[in-house]
Hints:
Layout: E1 13-17, E2 20-23, E3 26-29, E4 32-35, E5 38-41, H1 56-60, E6 67-71, H2 81-87, E7 93-97, H3 99-111, E8 116-120
Parallel strand pairs: 6-7, 6-8
Antiparallel strand pairs: 1-2, 2-3, 4-5, 4-8
Amino acid sequence: MVTGVPTASRNVITSYGNGGFRIGEHRHEGSLIVFPDAVMAWPVAGMPDVTPAVLAEVVARSARVDILLLGCGEASEVPPREVREFLRPHGIVVDAMTTGAACRTYNILMAEERLVAAALMAV
């Protein structure tokens, strides 16, 4: 279970596991990218799938994203150099951690009104 303060206008991650996530009252299967105002499917199952191409939507929203939390599943991994170099010129810092930690951190940063997004591998 993930705690947060649900609001009608922001996406709060209320739980994760069993191959998906609950955002507010809605269950989503598979990996996701979560923004405060949008949720989208993310075609990633593991770190080898994380490429600049699968993060294009994050860059497209770079004016509203300073921090990208990368939920790596059960264990934290370092994102590929090409991904870090792809995000850096857009002012986006990537912080990799377990998916659970990324969900919790996303909710906290969003509640603080930080410019955050979370790319989350399903667990």
